[in-house]
Amino acid sequence: MRLVHMPQSHQVDAIHRQAVPGAIRTAMLEWPLAAMRLIDRYICKQIFSHTLLGLGIFSFVFFVPQLVRLMDLVVRHPASWSTIGILFLSTFPGILSFTLPIGVLVGVLIALGRLSADSELIAMSALGMGRRRLMVPVGILAVGATLITFVMTLWLGPLSVRTFRSIEDQLRAGQASNQVAPRVFDERFPHMVLYINDIDSASTRWKGVFLAGTDSKDVSRLTLAEEAIVIADPKEGKLELHLRNGSVHEFSPGDPNRYSLSAFGQRDFPVDIKGSEVDRVSEPGIPGRSMSVLWSERRTQPETNVEIQRRLSFPFACISFALLAMPLGARPRRGGRAAGFLITLLLVSGYYLMITLGVGLARQGAIPVWAGVWSANFFTAGLGLILFPRLERMPGSSRTGAFFSRIARWKIWKILSREEQGIAPARAADGFCSNFPSKRRGRLGIPQLLDTYLLRSFFYYFILLTVGFILLFEVFTFFELLDDIARHRTPLLDVAYYFFYLASYLFYQLAPLAALVAVLITLGVMTKNNELVAFKAGGISLYRISLPLLLAGIFLAAGLVVLDDTYLPFANQRQDALRNQIKGRPAQTYYQPNRQWIFGLNAKIYNYELFDPDRELFGGLNVFELDPTTFEIRRRIFAARAHWDAQQKIWILESGWVREFNHGQLTRYEPFLANALAELNEPPSYFNREVRQSYQMTWWELKRYIADLSQAGFDVARLSVQLQKKISFPLIAPIIILLAIPFSILVGTRGAVGGLALGVGIAIVYWAASALTEAMGAVGQLPPLLAGWAPDTIFGFLGLYFFLKMPT
Q1: Are 24 and 36 in contact (CB under 8 A)?
Q2: CA dihedral 76, 79, 83, 87 (to 10 degrees)
Q3: Rounded Cα distance, 768 and 750, in Å
Q4: Residue 234 Cα distances to 268, 279, 465, 481, angstroms
Q5: Between helices 92-117 and 336-363, what is the axis angle to 10°?
Q6: Alpha carbon distance 670, 668 (integer Å)
Q7: Fewer C-beta within 10 Å: the chain N or C terminus?
Q8: Strand-strand pairing, 205-213 and 665-676
């Protein structure tokens, strides 16, 4: 349904000939009421389809951060398919309550913008149907979305939070043995420290068991065993350990001569998990409380008043956005769907910024809570009502019209306005082909006009999508941190710096997705306009057309690698430190000098009461030398104090003793006032290990960090996967572009909308596969190399297959 612009006197004839289908034209001539209903259904269909598209895109954007957590939970705690399905479904109500109003805004803006660009709204006006008639289909959609959002915020949202945490706690309690990682000192169990040298794939057999009791300060009790069979009993809240070939050591720090040693062949050892972190019950918090509970607590907890007002105000955002989107979307403008996308981002950002400021003022007591939460709705709806009378005016008849006319003349829309301007695509493509001499059309000559044309369109969409996604994520994050910013009175400048550093991390994460969608839209629009057909007719193959896009993907991947190895680690450290400040946490120290257990070199375990890294001093030091095969203690060293001798590079021990053992028997005991053992040669820096996340380090720093932690007895499976992903993740950019090129031709008839929808679908599959393999690698079910590179390998083969199968 497309009309060309013509004089007003000829518009009616054009409507009957072209703008209105035959069924609608007949209905308008015979039954005006039936025609209105038919047009209402047509407009509803247009708005609803774009609303679903916007809802799907924005819901996916907010679902991706939850996907990693879900995959990690599912991999670590196997459950039935029904339980897994409930877990996934429990994440959507909270997301939908936020994205449903955005979906309404996207649907109304883009749908009415397309109807206006195709002159269909002019056709309606020429037939006597005023633009205010749009209130019927738009109102139906807005009211329906409002009711659904009410269900989400008042009932399904809190219920899903409680359900998710309940299932999460049950899985953790039922799979307590799965939560124990090998070569890690686990202090989550009550009154004990657990160290396992190795665990089988089923987590039912442990090899090399080290148990240190911490319930008594007068007696130090150690239990060691060559292996253990584990039986979980979640009903009783216990783990039953059936130990084999072990020994029990008891020692009194106050009496060096008091030492007890007993060996055993088999022994049952119960481990109580009730009250431990593996059996903790997650508190649902305010988001998980029902409305009745919040209402009863509104006088004692002021925060509940804010939550009540939020749950009531969010649904009405659908109506506020619809009122504002109608006059904005119905205005004739260039840029089509891209303009609607940009306007959506600006309106959403402004809306939630107003909520943030309003709630902040309410917390300070400057305005009532209801006024702070509802101010954004009032302002948005009021602005829509102010613009609504201008809906019937022709473009340029008011200052508002002149403003939109100036925006429409911006050069930024020219690339996207081919459809709206009615330019003959074949002639445009012929113009490009005519610039290539016939003898050079199939050659590689770079730069050429075709390359410039493709790259200009690609980078336009890429920048547009990247900025849009980053802005959307930051708005959502700002809204999440609103309570913490107000509660801890974080300075506005610190908040601004946090989002500045966060933007670089978001760019690194979202750039491949933006590149994927940019390629799909660029080639999809060209296919829809038959430009690719014209290029092929001029002797230029699709492989040659794809070359600049593939090169752009390679350069993007190289840029992401450089970014991750230079500026990004610093930015991530800064944004983590500022986030801790916003959250009210203590200033982060990247060191843990008070760690009491650490695995040393040559099968030694260090335990200490105090470590002073500045003075290089130990207090209450215990050293256990183990037999790597049987996991028995061969020698135990105790010293009340120990200091580092930098010249000899050994520890000088004071006021202690040495005990040696052989097959469960004490063979030697030697007390000393001062002693120096050459075997204890780990320097002070070995015990002052830096604790950093993988994204806060470069590739080389992370590699060294993994080697140090592995030697010290820490689980490095997750870090090893992250080491592989530091290279594999940026390389997904050219791979996913290779996959996008053939798929963009398949959706060419749908143009930008089809490309955007398909891009989201491919991204969902990739991120799900990436999160799954990463979680499996973190628990040792996949080697780190395979876990990090499996998504790239799979998508690379698929992309190469479909690319070579293109009808070039």
Answers
A1: no
A2: 10
A3: 26
A4: 17, 9, 48, 36
A5: 140
A6: 7
A7: C
A8: unpaired
The gap from C-alpha 93 to its chain's centroid, in whole angstroms, comes to 17
In this predicted structure, the answer to whether residue 11 has a pLDDT above a threshold of 50 is no
* Cβ(145)–Cβ(89) below 8 Å: no
> How many alpha carbons lie under 13 Å from residue 185 in its C-beta half-sphere?
16
Residue 679 and residue 657: Cα distance in Å, rounded? Answer: 15
Report which of residues 113 and 659 the model is more confident about.
659
Question: Under a CB-based contact definition with an 8 Å cutoff, are residues 107 and 140 in contact?
Answer: no
Q: Read off the tokens for 130.
A: 């005023």
Helix H or strand E encompassing 243: strand 238-252
Residue corresponding to tokens 């106050």: 254
CB 437 within 8 A of CB 449: no
User: How far is residue 624's CA from residue 602's CA, in Å, rounded to a whole number?
Assistant: 11
Query: Does 750 have pLDDT greater than 60?
Result: no
What whole-number distance in Å separates Cα of residue 272 and Cα of residue 151?
41
Q: CA angle 687-695-769, nearest 5°?
A: 120
**In whole angstroms, what is the distance from residue 368 CA to residue 366 CA?**
7
What does the pLDDT look like over 20-75, one tens digit per residue? 444 444 444 444 555 567 777 888 888 888 888 778 777 877 777 677 677 767 77
The answer to whether 229 and 204 have CB atoms below 8 angstroms apart is yes
Q: Which residues of 307-334 are buried (b: 16+ CB within 10 A; e: fewer)?
A: bbbbbbbbbbbbbbbbbbbbbbbbbbbb
Phi/psi for 425 (5° steps) reads -60, -40
**Cα separations (Å) of 424 from 108, 447, 563?**
28, 26, 42
Cα–Cα distance measured from residue 387 to residue 277, given in angstroms and rounded to the nearest whole number: 56
| Nearest to 640, CA basis, from 673, 595, 597, 605 | 673
For residue 212, give both structure tokens.
């240190």
CB-based contact 233:239 (threshold 8 Å):
yes
Euclidean distance between CA atoms 657 and 402, whole angstroms: 90
Residue of 687, 700, 701, 718 lying closest to 601 (CA atoms) = 687
Helix (H, G, I), strand (E, B) or coil at 77: coil
The single-letter DSSP state of residue 204 is -
Label residue 539 exposed, middle or buried (CB < 10 Å: 0-12, 13-18, 19+).
Answer: middle
Q: Is the pTM of this model over 0.85?
A: no
Task: Give phi and psi for 693, each to the nearest 5.
Answer: -85, 160
Closest by CA to 675, choosing from 712, 713, 711, 635, is 635
Residue 214's pLDDT is 64
Three-class DSSP category at 87: helix
Residue 375 CA to residue 193 CA, distance in Å, equals 53
